[in-house]
Amino acid sequence: MAERDAFKRQAAERVLPLVRTGMVLGLGTGSTARYFIDALAPLVAGGLRVTAVPTSRASAELALAAGIPLIAELDRPVDLAVDGADEIDPRRDLVKGRGGALFREKLVAYSAERFVVIGDSSKLVDRLGAGVVPVEVLPFMWRQTARRLASALGVTWDLRGGPETPYKTDNGNVVVDLTFPAGIAAPGQVAAEIKEIMGVIEHGIFIGMTTACVVAGPSGLQVLGSLE
């Protein structure tokens, strides 16, 4: 774990040169995004002027502790969004949201001029769907939504946290985690099918949104896409 944390920190620090004074930053959620926020703190203390849109209450708290001013609404694009991922495939498509912030993460990424993903090499997969795919759904009649997902996609599902104490997102919704027995052969098609199912708010498949992925591991640092 300590080694993986070191790789995450290395990837986060590689992205710091992209940050410029005056930028609006999108701040992701999770352990990898935390390293990016931590790395920003001394730069902000040294005079770097940025504002940020956090993707979760947890990230907002970290940013405020780091002295980064926050905004919730803006009438311009986010200059740079930086976040982690649960899975990264060779096309830079992603599975995200196992930390529970997938809807806000996708909103911020979609609003960004550049969306850069950072992580350690364990996140690299040949095919998405190696682990669970989170889907944020409306709590009202969530079982019916979960059954529609299973029927349409041929998957199994679990309610995160269980029916007695379900996990709630910052938006007040619940998360249904889908398991694809053989992975996802056509991520774009599956993403579209999930969005068509009544009761679904958003899913954790990110297609064609990533500008670059910075991944660190035992063999060094690699950049998928372009940081220019």
User: Beta-strand percentage?
Assistant: 25-35%
Radius of gyration: 17 Å
Shape: globular
H/E element order: HEHEHEEEHEEHEEHEEEE
Sheet with most strands:
6 strands, mixed
Helix content: 25-40%
Question: How many distinct helices?
Answer: 6
- Cα separation of the termini: 31 Å
Side by side, the strands of the main sheet go 2-1-3-6-12-13
Low-pLDDT stretches are none
Structural class, by secondary structure, is alpha/beta
Total DSSP E strands: 13
Polypeptide structure, described:
The chain has six helices and 13 strands. By secondary structure, the protein is α/β, with parallel strands linked by helices. 42% of the residues are buried. It starts with a helix and ends with a strand. A hairpin with a 2-residue loop joins strand 12 and strand 13. The chain is globular, with a radius of gyration of 17 Å. It is 30% helix and 26% strand. The chain has a six-stranded mixed sheet with strand order 2-1-3-6-12-13.
